Amino acid sequence: MIRFEHVGLRYGIGPEVLSDISFALEPGSFHFLTGSSGAGKTSLLTLIYLGRRPTRGLITMFGQNINGLSRAELAPIRQRIGVVFQDFRLLNHMSAFDNVALPLRIQGKAESEIRNNVQELLEWVGLGDHMHVLPNTMSGGQQQRVAIARAVITRPRLLLADEPTGNLDSEIGFRLMNLFEQLNRMGTTILIATHDQTMIERFEHNKLVLDHGGLRVEEPKHWLSKKIDGVF
């Protein structure tokens, strides 16, 4: 689904913030993206959701080399990607319901279908009684849940999330992680940027680890121990 080959990124004339990045995400996979603060997690996500072009290297998404595509040609690729931004990016003049419904309305879905799907999802993330509330009157955790619901309402082929549980208590955080896992079982490829080691250890998926601009892939520790014990 995604392949990076020797990708580098720099801002202006400064040094590369990402250097010689190579990895692949297979369809239906689930990865955590982790690393110390300032390691480049948000920069890497920006490249994946096509918010910025790389300084060098090759990026292939859904079988297409995206480096030479125009903005118009990138648009249908972006429609296959759901993104949960760290700063939420909700529309404050619209209710929680209308924020989540927006992607479906852009797709031209019937209002009856929109009403049922949005209501069900908002209830699932614990906001069934906040559907008509404006985001700027909500807590940070509630806004985070609206942003997550909006990102997953269309069942994207690829879901990117930047610290999606950072403003949530552990119970709601685990509940939302279970939603991501359910989406993954239905075929959505998931990449979650997080520094929450408890969450990473609890859900045990492969990790993309950024360190000083470089990247390595790590398997969950329990998988490694099984291999050592000869189970695989």
Sheet-strand content, in percent, reads 25-35%
Count the DSSP helices: 8
Poorly predicted spans:
223-232
What quaternary form is this? single chain
Intertermini distance = 26 Å
Order of helices and strands: EEEHEEHEHHHEHEHEEH
Helix fraction, binned, reads 25-40%
State Rg.
18 Å
Total E-strand runs = 10
Question: Residue-averaged pLDDT, rounded?
Answer: 89
- Pairing-aware structural class of the strands and helices? alpha/beta
- Approximate shape: globular
Polypeptide structure, described:
By secondary structure, this protein is an alpha/beta fold. The chain has a domain at 90-155. 37% of the residues lie in helices and 25% in strands. The chain is built from eight helices and ten strands.
List its traits.
globular, 4-stranded antiparallel β-sheet, alpha/beta, 8 helices
Layout: helices, strands, pairs:
Blueprint: E1 2-10, E2 16-25, E3 30-35, H1 41-48, E4 56-61, E5 64-65, H2 71-78, E6 81-84, H3 96-106, H4 111-124, H5 140-152, E7 158-162, H6 170-185, E8 189-193, H7 197-203, E9 206-211, E10 214-218, H8 221-228
Parallel strand pairs: 3-8, 3-9, 6-7, 7-8
Antiparallel strand pairs: 1-2, 1-4, 4-5, 9-10
